[in-house]
Amino acid sequence: MRPFSISRFDTTSAPRAGVRVFVMHSVRRPGDGRPRPRELEIEVPAPFRLDLTVWALRRRAHNEVDRWDGRVYRRALHMGEDAQALSVTQTGPLEAPRLGLTVAGAGVDGHAEALASGALDRLLGRTVDLSGFGALAVRDPRLTGLARRLRGLKPPRFPTVFEALVNGIACQQLSLTVGIHLLNRLTARHGRAVAGVPGGLRAFPTPEALASATVPELRAIGFSGAKADAIIKASAAIADGVLDLEALQAADDRAAVGLLTSLRGVGRWTAEYALLRGLGRLHVFPGDDVGARNTLSRVFGIEGPLDYAGVSRLAAQWSPYAGMVYFSLLVDSLSEAGLLGGAGAWSDDASLPGE
């Protein structure tokens, strides 16, 4: 089985155009030759808010994979043979944002540094141009207030399509709160710890790690037998080189959904979830998401129940940014529930492009 790490993913090994990375320092510990954590400062296209974007990624306060303490975002990633810890802070304001990135753990070098910087493109959507979404929100009064409140939110993605798929399977037919608990346990049991970094941070499990798990082991941490079997079989196919989910980057939506739904335990909702959160397809709004349907009805004053066809009709009006509406509704609902600690309280006086 091939080692599965971020170096195999579609993450650029160098900063993209328009995003400058400044290495602040990179030194070695006296006497032992081990590198200290490497620190970088990264320019990000404005507007950008780390807090809102991290909440769209983590979804619940008890998420132990994507951690946020109100100032610092932390996550572990597999880069090469080791797991490294990323710590990210926003050091500039909404209209002139910069990110401070620290990479720590065994094997931290310039290559890991570049991979970590590239991973942030996926995790935090830092280079995604949302000027078109802003223009759409100006034209559609249903979106205007929402987009103003959440100005600076970028669309996050999981580091891999595999992680998006496992997240989708874990959360099927359960509350998001319960699904996050399952993912926490899965990571605690099968994820790799970051060497030399305190705090219990672990990287999300690799396909190799989960391919070697057993159904009874996953049932013991709360997964149903069917979900455990689905996760293990998909993991084994990836680890054995039979299945390459990252290759779906080149597939159209229909082909991608077709492949994903051919996997055991993967239905339409999980497939569309993976398209949005794993492949970054912002035109996709997972239409079977009951929570998103309810939020659509509440925020936009829609009477009567929404079905998949009804969500699809709405999403077509917001193309190619229906997925951005999905993320905005999620973060807005978290703010309404008081889970953001004020993170979502951006002024309604904030202007959008074109206003």
What does this protein structure show overall?
This protein folds into two domains: 124 residues, TATA-Binding Protein (2-Layer Sandwich); 176 residues, Hypothetical protein, domain 2 (Endonuclease III, domain 1, Orthogonal Bundle), CATH 1.10.340. Helices cover 42% and strands 10% of the residues. It has 14 helices and six strands. Strand 5 and strand 6 form a beta hairpin. Strands 1-2-6-5-4-3 form a six-stranded antiparallel beta sheet, with helices on one face. By secondary structure, the chain is an alpha+beta fold.
- Please identify which CATH superfamily of the largest domain we are dealing with: Hypothetical protein, domain 2
Largest sheet: 6 strands, antiparallel
Specify the overall morphology. globular
Helix and strand content put the structural class at: alpha+beta
Give the CATH class of the largest domain.
Answer: Mainly Alpha
Oligomer: single chain
The CATH topology of the largest domain: Endonuclease III, domain 1
Number of domains: 2
Strand order of the largest sheet: 1-2-6-5-4-3
How much of the sequence is in beta strands?
5-15%
Backbone CA Rg: 20 Å
The overall strand count is: 6
Distance between the termini: 54 Å
- Let me know the average pLDDT: 87
